[in-house]
Amino acid sequence: MSTTLKQTGYKVSCFSSAANCVEQLSKQDCDLLITDLKMPYMDGLTLLEETRRVAPWVSTMVVTGYGDIPTAVEAIKLGAVDFVEKPLNKEVFLRKVRSALNQDNFVNSPAGKALTKTEKKVLKLVLEGKGNKDIVYRLKLAERTVKLHRSNIMRKLGVDNLVDLVKQAAKMGLLESPSGDRESRTRQIDLSEFGKMIAGIRHDLVSALGVISTTMDLLCSDVHNPKCVDDLKRITLATRYCGLVLGNLSDLVAHTMPNKVPLDVAEVLDEVIEIMASRIRPGICISKHYESNVPPIVADKGQIQRVFMNLIDNALQAMPDDGRLSISIQQELRTKAKQFKRVIVVKISDTGIGIPKKNLKKIFDLAFSTKRQGYGIGLYTVKQILEQHKGSIHVESQEQERSTFTVFLPVEKNK
């Protein structure tokens, strides 16, 4: 894009990060900002917000993938004047740039015909990124009828593509703020594309963490200063925590079969607590109650570690200042098909903010999160891992008081 614009006679500045861009926007003149959406550290929508803060006079254009309508809606709300879709077409790109610089930012005015009640419902779902089949299911209409409504909407608004539809809807004030619980949201994730994207990233990070961990082990054997040894151990634990986090991504997209071996649940829990030591604040009290003579389970160690890591991490985040984290292990005998089966029961409780009753059925859904910076992957991963191990999980919570997650793991023979 930079080369194309320079060849056309524009003066262009490129930035390797969104943060660097924001810093320069406050110092130098700029007529048009062109940004991608998917970027590390600060994404395109956040960059648009920051641009409005430091240089509100700057026009903005967003590079986006086809069909990403919900994001386009958010970008329009944040002031984006146009979109350029991937893969880029040189002529279309330059035409849009000229239009943005001339402030000719919106499509021609609509035909002036009002939308019907059903057309408004269809439009709302289209702007949420719903496809025809989803709209058919939600509105109980025939697919042919939905297609006709979409065609009428485009004709009445005077547009011929989805991007211009979003822009025209913004111009007419048809983009409503999201309704419902503003503290919780569900991110839309295309798992197939997500998997392709993170596969390479995960490989590189795991390799780097392996080098760091191995080097730490070597240094620990050579260093004799106790303070340095403690520091090296903390670094080692931090790399192991990063490995567990990366494991969440692997479980999410790869669906690898568990490598089951006999495991002592108490040892696994203690190891996870040690790895997460740096995340346990001074005001948090940990209480452990492990029943003696609990038999081992047969499970994948890394996956079971990730189950406990996610649950403990959630408990810690539910207690922003102080509180008590209680962890217990016991065994139970259960009857199934007139047979007795031993089950290991692990309870992880916190004295935190609790979970609203309306969210209890959603917390294990992919991409559901009530945290501002949450991705909704942790508890979904927990449930998937437990199902692979023929286990289960139950949650009880009381708002502003406590939450308890109970994990059930069967005691089975090593096959």
Quick structural gist:
The chain is of the alpha/beta class. The chain is built from 14 helices and twelve strands.
Relevant terms:
14 helices; 18% strand; 415 residues; 5-stranded mixed sheet; alpha/beta; Rossmann fold; Heat Shock Protein 90; Arc Repressor Mutant, subunit A; 3 domains
Set out the fold topology.
Layout: H1 2-8, H2 18-25, E1 32-36, H3 44-54, E2 59-64, H4 69-77, E3 80-85, H5 90-101, H6 117-127, H7 132-139, H8 143-157, H9 162-171, E4 185-186, H10 191-222, H11 226-253, E5 261-263, H12 265-275, E6 284-290, E7 297-299, H13 301-318, E8 323-336, E9 339-350, E10 368-369, H14 378-388, E11 392-398, E12 402-410
Parallel strand pairs: 1-2, 2-3, 6-8
Antiparallel strand pairs: 4-10, 5-7, 8-9, 9-12, 11-12
Rounded average pLDDT: 78
Number of helices: 14
Kindly report how far apart the N and C termini lie.
57 Å
What letter string, H or E per element, gives the SSE order? Answer: HHEHEHEHHHHHEHHEHEEHEEEHEE
How many distinct domains? 3
Report low-confidence residues grouped into runs of 5 or more: 104-112, 177-192
Strand order of the largest sheet: 6-8-9-12-11
Report the C-alpha radius of gyration, rounded: 26 Å
Largest pleated sheet: 5 strands, mixed
Structural class determined from secondary elements: alpha/beta
Helix content: 40-55%
What is CATH's topology name of the largest domain? Heat Shock Protein 90
The overall strand count is 12
Relevant CATH superfamily of the largest domain: Histidine kinase-like ATPase, C-terminal domain
